[in-house]
């Protein structure tokens, strides 16, 4: 599915952003980068910023029209930093990603990013089934192009992960209730032995400590360490006798 | 709430990444950038990449230790690109963002990013209550630093937008980072004093205990109780002398 998702960059000015986009895609298991009339490409700066994603960059076709870049796509989503009068429905990134994963199960889909300075033209937006907008600070809404590709690639990858049937991850082994009770008994005795707690006044104290260790949920090893510490503290006392 | 979220960058090598982080934060309404021993700063490249976020960049304090950067924080989350043996609980970005928004309602919180090449050291990760990992391509997991800040800032902003619709519940007061450090120092000394820990062999032990108390997140009263217990255990020893 992820190999049917095209990231299309239209008339990118800064080659560094093309490299950053390739790296972001590679991190998120996306493979198809398509460039429409980039200002400078190929470029050393793009390759440097792509880091380990230079293969992906080298494979990227360069098209001279958006039409060529979108060939064969069943779903086209355009990115937009601001409200548009265009009538394509607006999605948030999460809904956009879910849609892309849903539809890439059956065919090619494209996510289109415009120019750094001015985004996509109305004519280009008209080619899109949906628009997607990344929520931002209204006073400073312009994301860097590479950063926008990163956020949407991340959401697409998450949607893909969620879509797979996943077994729940392993849980930490924690000490059993009876081990915890044994520990709390030991703790109470040790506090008395080292002269910290007066057994008649210590109920409230012991409840505080109980609550603290319940939150920590120690595993068996940790409980053994704690009991070793208590014994060491007690041992000093018995040595004194 | 968003103004109580610190983004802490530790020993960043490339000033362009500092600028990209500032821009990403500004896009997502985050205001507090804190730099720990950056290789080159201030820097023209950082300012250029910050784009409209140069104010935020100019305000960023430069600290010479992680401790200084974390001063006053009630919650510390570290970023990690790979599995660690460290046992701090691992969050995904969405859960991390929800936690940050929840806790920033009552105090300062920090999200810590490590070096481009090697991330955070185990010692630095030990300072964290939680770790967060951005899901990635397992064959190519290393996100650009600016891109990682972008993804997590975006999730934090989304969580904040979502949280505006629901009233937050009351949160426990927890001890600050520096109080926790004071406690861990006292604990190490007490373990030595009672003859439990050989200082040369105790690194692993102390890390286990650190992880346990990070999970428990004691409040100030509880921390005072724990330190009282340590002092009582130590006192017995000095009485013997």
TrEMBL record, chains A, B:
The keyword Heme does not apply. Keywords: Cytoplasm, Methyltransferase, S-adenosyl-L-methionine, Transferase, tRNA processing. It holds the Pfam family SpoU_methylase. It is found in: Cytoplasm. Residues 5-154 form the tRNA/rRNA methyltransferase SpoU type domain. It is an enzyme of class 2 (transferase). Its EC number is 2.1.1.200. It comes from the Bacteria. One of its GO terms (molecular function) is RNA binding. GO terms for biological process: tRNA nucleoside ribose methylation. It catalyses: uridine(32) in tRNA + S-adenosyl-L-methionine = 2'-O-methyluridine(32) in tRNA + S-adenosyl-L-homocysteine + H(+); cytidine(32) in tRNA + S-adenosyl-L-methionine = 2'-O-methylcytidine(32) in tRNA + S-adenosyl-L-homocysteine + H(+). CDD domains: SpoU-like_TrmJ. Belongs to the class IV-like SAM-binding methyltransferase superfamily. RNA methyltransferase TrmH family. Homodimer. This is tRNA (cytidine/uridine-2'-O-)-methyltransferase TrmJ.
């Amino acid at each position: 599915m992820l190999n049917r998702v095209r990231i299309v960059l239209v008339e990118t000015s800064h080659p560094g952003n093309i490299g950053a986009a390739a790296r972001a895609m590679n991190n998120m298991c996306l493979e198809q980068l398509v460039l429409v009339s980039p200002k400078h490409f190929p470029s050393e700066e793009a390759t440097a910023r792509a880091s380990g994603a230079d293969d992906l960059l080298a494979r990227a076709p360069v098209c001279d029209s958006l039409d060529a870049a979108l060939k064969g796509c069943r779903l086209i989503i355009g990115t937009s930093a601001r409200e548009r009068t265009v009538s394509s429905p607006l999605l948030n990134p999460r809904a956009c990603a879910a849609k892309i994963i849903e539809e890439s199960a059956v065919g090619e889909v494209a996510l289109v990013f415009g120019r750094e300075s001015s985004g996509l033209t109305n004519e280009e937006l008209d080619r899109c089934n949906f628009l997607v907008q990344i929520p931002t600070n209204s006073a400073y809404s312009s994301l860097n192009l590479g950063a926008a590709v990163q956020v949407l690639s991340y959401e697409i990858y998450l949607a893909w992960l969620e879509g797979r049937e996943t077994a729940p991850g392993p849980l930490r082994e924690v000490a059993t209730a009876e081990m915890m009770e044994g520990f709390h008994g030991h703790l109470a005795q040790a506090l008395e032995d080292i002269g910290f707690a007066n057994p008649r006044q210590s109920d409230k104290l012991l409840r505080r400590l109980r609550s603290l260790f319940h939150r920590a949920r120690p595993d068996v090893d940790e409980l053994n360490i704690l009991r070793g510490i208590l014994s060491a503290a007690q041992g000093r006392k018995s040595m004194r006798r």
